[in-house]
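call fold(seq) -> tokens
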Amino acid sequence: MTLESLLLSRDAEVFRILRPTLEKLSIQVEICQEAKRASEILISEKFDAVIVDCDDMPGGLEVLQGLRSTPGNRGSVAFAVLNGKRTTTQEVFGMGVNFVLQKPISTLNASRCFHAALGFMERERRRYFRQAVTMPVNVVLGEKELKATSTNISEGGIAIKLHQALPKNAKPRLQFALPESKLDMDVESELAWADLKGHAGLRFLKVPPSSQELLEKWLDEQVGKELPGSKQKPPGSNSGS
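ret:
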């Protein structure tokens, strides 16, 4: 699994600099050269990073303005590419942009910018990331206990498979131990969705801070295994200059 980005621009020099820079960090790049098409893509697809050439791309600024209202990309890390003549950094930061690149873009500046942004992208990826995991889960409903098996887990909940359907509006207590960890979870939950075949999604409630911290750390480790670019150091980080 790699991080994914959308680059909206028509500038060949922007492509020449940014594409290899992103790919070296294991960030896949989808290039779009039309603002209308970019808006359509952002409605239907999720990206870890969205890079918009605001000044030299007709409609680019409008795409950036609407980014935070898209269901899947309101939390994406946003980059504005400016030419220094039209839009100001203050304006784009007011639109929710996280990072700004000024033309002419150099490989070094681009590398530093995206290295600095990696942590934000990985944090957003982890927030919606679901780790596939198979482990026993004890589902406690009042005095009744059901045995289940997990299919995936995230920061906020877990998907499980039971031999019977959970009742509507169920709020079971869940007990399980994450693989290869010392984390035993015992948390309240509420039913988010269920089908008639025993599959269900449960949202965590009132997770103790210590358990939440350990769960996030465990998920960080799983994401880290999938995102090799996160372990790279910025260029020149070991130099004496």
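The helical segments are 12-24, 35-44, 60-66, 89-94, 107-128, 209-226.
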